[in-house]
Amino acid sequence: MNALARRAAGLLLSTICLPMAAFAADSQPTHEFILDNGLKVVVREDHRAPVVVSQVWYKVGSTYETPGQTGLSHALEHMMFKGSGKLGPGEASRILRDLGAEENAFTSDDYTAYYQVLARDRLPVALEMEADRMASLRLPADEFSREIEVIKEERRLRTDDNPGSKAFEMFRAMAYPASGYHTPTIGWMADLERMKVEELRHWYESWYVPNNATLVVVGDITVDEVKGLAQKYFAGIPKRAVPPAKLPLEVAEPGQRLLTMHVKTQLPSVIYGFNVPSLATAKDPRSVHALRLISALLDGGYSARMPSTLERQQELVAGSSSSYNPFTRGDSLFMLSATPNTQKGKTLAEVEKGFWQLLDELKTTPPTAEELERVRAQVVAGLVYDRDSISSQATTIGQLETVGLSWKLIDSELDELKSVTPADIQKAARTYFIRERLSVAHVLPEEKAHD
Amino acid sequence: MNRCFPLLAFALLTLISGASASALTSLQAAPPLSPLPPLPIQAWQTAQGARVLFMPSRHLPMFDLQVTFAAGSGRNTSAFGLAGLTLSMLDEGTRSHAAEQIAEAFDASAARFDKTLDRERATLTLRSLSRQAPREAAVAQFVELLGEPTFPPDRLALVQDQFFNRLQALATSDKYRASEQLYHHLYAGHPFAAPLHGTVEHLAGLDVADLSDFYQRHFSASNALIVLVGDLSDAQARQIAERVSNALPQGPAQSAMALPTRQDAEIYQLDGLGNQAHLLFGLPAVAADDPDLPALTVANLILGGNVSSRLIEQVRNRHGLSYDPYSELTSHSTSGLWTLQANVEARYQQATMELIHNLLETFANEGPTEQEFDDARQYLRGTLLLNAVSNEDIARHLRDIGFNHLPLDQRGHLLEAVQKLTLDQLKVVLKKHLVLDRLVQVGVGPTVAQEPLPSPGGE
């Protein structure tokens, strides 16, 4: 669910999605091991407070779903709180609450994950519960009939009644013509209306097996402690083959697409998305690192090009952002979005012109060494700042593992980013920022529909 | 101020009795909770009168600096929006640097600078690496904009436009409109009734002199709270605090915020743009230092402040009406409020409001059960441990205890008060504050035919 929110927020927030740093790794050792049944376990030590976060990640999400069955992964996430072999519906939540733990779950295109944050000596409880619902979910029909109503209400709240998310859902459906990324994680309403608990059981039996999961523990704990506990609670769950999962690949240059939507908003906005590879799909990883730095050049701080040029010098936009997620299982999008400065009477056409000026400049003029240094410094510092939260450390590890990359990637990250040259940036801009890769959405206030 | 339980992904127990009957072996073996260690907080005052709270944390090579002033929107009663505009303009130009240079200076040292406003407080935050070069550069830029802002007129026009754009966007936010309506009513005649982000009329009439004057009176050292958390030695922390304090204008501290007067119950219905209805219920509650706060904190957890609260059970699990209903206590320095919110399909608005009203009535009359009371106290104990791990959370905590003059070991004090509390005492406090003839109800939604609640248990 958080993942749903995060994706919508991507419209507003700039993201240079980077994992935690490798430096100071000596003070925070990270270990991995694999149980005989295929469960992968990653442990990262962080001894600031007597607290741990435990996360179980499954390699399943909305990109695995087929038309007519959208929303299954997310609905199954809800039903994971409705009872398993040793636990009645909601009992796990109540027990965790009484232990003063925090828990939740999130579903995205590429993964479904469950987590608990709790006192270090309560970790066994979290692991026993996760093992129990990995092996023996109950899926009661009466609980499902109530919960699907909550899910529909969640869809109304987050998407149907949220003009920005609604527009973004349609935008993604257009921008990803070939891959499962066009499917909204929460599912289309028509599919929620006809979802059956039997479908969830089939989904659960297909994907919820130890060899399709990663356990990540970060906090005041040692690898030996986690080894003992993982063995005790998870080793008895048998391995089982999962269906073949193919990478969600896109058409490289599908042609320019335009969507015009009228929604209940007072402010118009424009969204750009270029079809680009991710780290998992790129033939040339250097181009992906170049795109990451481009996103930072455009929107990596208050002095970056979008706020500086579009917002302040030209007074063209009220707000703008760029984002690029290189850590997806399949192909990705490089996005720009902005709201015109209506106080100055600026139009969407003028904002688009401003976008293209920035993009063309990247193609023709190499960034100065000073600007590139500033951007790299922020990226590197961001790696440190992200380690302030034990949960975000665990999420980074879980996400990398689940999209088919290794958490060890973080060791080579800094070098990779440092090796990107101004020429690489120009080359990536020329390759990817072309109209054949572009989807455009014009999101307009409803009253303009009659103009 | 923040909700503790965002975006609950799950629904919960219909009814389970007997906590000890669990089949989990790990639960039976779980040791008793270890004691809550106090945070190593240091407190002092600078020569100019700024108060300082510092907690060293040497695990990561970074630190957070926050400076908070009693300069929220409740301090600009004659010009709505002046507090926010002044805060927003601080980094738009100084005697030494233009806005663009300030932005570049922060970015070049890889620091993160931010500003936040609420009804009572204006806060500037700086997150930086602790290594000397970036630390020095970031702190120097931060101190400069705090101490010598010039409020350039061309930038003012730009920032005013940003405010107008934001007000236009907020006009379609059901949540913002409901919250403003609630404050407008509960704080009638009080400075907190002023709209948080101002009004177009007032903002348009403000000039540089207004901002300079507000700055001189409110951003003084004696009106400042400096919070430092992270990888700093005592000497470094003292030096940074002195530099901030020396840079600020001199002047008296602001007087304490007035107390709100008593208001009657009211129901508001505002037209909403969406297909859902946003419901907000509010009651006056207590200040951050009120002796009733520990009991109300426990009561709030049971009512709607955690994942198996009465609100979640009734509104979400039993009737499937709402994804994320919750309640929260907000404590300002001299007053506070207790709110409940839920989003529901518009056709069920009336029925849901009645459901929640009945739930409140039962809770006020009968109070929690013994089991709920014990569970909530245990839960609170756990969250206190979890909420003091990251520098960010600790800095937020220090700001709250500093601004409200709470004891340094506020967590320990709260825990002790909650452990001593009896169920009967809690019921007395609950009856005193959960008074339904003061309940304000705000609904924001479209006008549609109302339907009775769907039957419990789904179709």
UniProtKB/TrEMBL annotation, chain A:
Q: Does the keyword Protease apply?
A: yes
Q: Where are the transmembrane segments?
A: none
Pfam families per record: Peptidase_M16, Peptidase_M16_C
Q: Kindly indicate whether the keyword Zinc belongs to this entry.
A: yes
Query: What region holds the Peptidase M16 N-terminal domain?
Result: 40-176
Keywords tagged on the record: Hydrolase, Metalloprotease, Protease, Signal, Zinc
The chain positions of domain Peptidase M16 C-terminal read: 196-378
Alphabetical list of InterPro entries matching this protein = Metalloenz_LuxS/M16, Pept_M16_N, Peptidase_M16, Peptidase_M16_C
Q: Tell me which positions the record assigns to the signal sequence.
A: 1-24
UniProt similarity note? Belongs to the peptidase M16 family.
Official protein name in the record: Insulinase family protein
| Organism, as annotated | Pseudomonas fontis
Automatic annotation (TrEMBL), chain B:
Give the top-rank taxon of the lineage listed in the UniProt record for this protein: Bacteria
Signal peptide positions are 1-21
Q: Which UniProt keywords apply?
A: Signal
Q: Where is the Peptidase M16 N-terminal domain?
A: 66-199
Q: Where is the Peptidase M16 C-terminal domain?
A: 206-379
Q: Does the keyword Ribosomal protein apply?
A: no
State the name under which the record lists this protein. Answer: Insulinase family protein
Source organism: Pseudomonas fontis
The opening ranks of the lineage are: Bacteria, Pseudomonadati, Pseudomonadota, Gammaproteobacteria, Pseudomonadales
